């Protein structure tokens, strides 16, 4: 009887370890997916901003929006371009050079009122 009890205890311990390892693996996969999805965001929410080095990618992965420097210019424009085409092809651009902002200080911001604006980051 004593031998039978120790076998049951070993089985329970193995099951607990197995459950814990499954939970840990699930947590790891979820964390990796969150990190991946954070990089490929297709939405900006009120109160959020998009910095010069960030982009929004359309849900289907065809278009990308963000700041870019046309040609050899030192100025940055806000634009939308094809993401999957080898040659950089702009679909739409807003010339933001008239704002007089340094490239690193620009951000696209969606206000809580729903207004989209290019602002100076502080």
TrEMBL record:
User: Is Cytoplasm one of the keywords UniProt gives this record?
Assistant: no
**Keyword annotations for this protein?**
Disulfide bond, Glycoprotein, Signal
> Which ranges form a coiled coil?
none
Q: Which PROSITE patterns match?
A: BULB_LECTIN (PS50927)
**All copies of domain Bulb-type lectin, residue ranges:** 41-122
- Protein name, entry field: Bulb-type lectin domain-containing protein
């Amino acid at each position: 009887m004593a031998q039978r009890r120790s076998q049951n205890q070993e089985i329970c311990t193995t099951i607990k370890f197995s459950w814990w390892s499954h939970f840990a693996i699930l947590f790891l996969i979820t964390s990796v997916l969150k990190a991946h999805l954070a990089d490929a965001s297709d939405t900006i929410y009120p109160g959020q901003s998009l910095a010069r080095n960030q982009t929004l990618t359309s849900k289907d992965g065809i278009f990308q929006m963000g700041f870019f420097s046309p040609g050899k210019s030192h100025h940055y424009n806000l634009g939308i371009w094809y993401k999957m085409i080898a040659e950089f092809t702009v679909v739409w651009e807003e010339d933001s050079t008239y704002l007089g902002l340094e490239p690193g200080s620009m951000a696209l911001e969606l206000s809580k009122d729903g207004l989209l604006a290019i602002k100076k980051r502080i």
